[in-house]
What we know:
The radius of gyration is 22 Å and the shape is elongated. The model has no long low-confidence stretch (mean pLDDT 86). The protein contains no helices and 11 strands. By secondary structure, the chain is an all-beta fold.
Amino acid sequence: MASRRTQTIDDDSPQTAMTKLPANFKPRPRRAHVLDQTAGPGSPKRHELSDDTLVIGRGSAADLRLDSDDVSRTHAQLLRVDDEYSIEDLDSRNGIFLNGLQVHAAVLRDGDQVQLGDVVFIYSEGS
């Protein structure tokens, strides 16, 4: 007959704590994130994402400017948290479509298709 083993962890036991990183520690570099523009004025074009916050639109205040009348002056915002980007609609006229579905906000995943008006992007991480 098989015996069952159990282990009890004492909550008062000392915990491992690192106060100083080892000398040979190398932090993992942040992966590059990219929006490849596949349709719309100015395509094809690659937009590398490096900032933690990025406004997309046709206005002069936009960080990523698109020359399209179907894109609002401040259409959408990209926000990086840790190593993920999310996109949020900034009350644009034509909205955001993610993989063909209209969304107000979403976390982007590798290979997602993002459409703002007549401009289409493919999102890539780690390229």
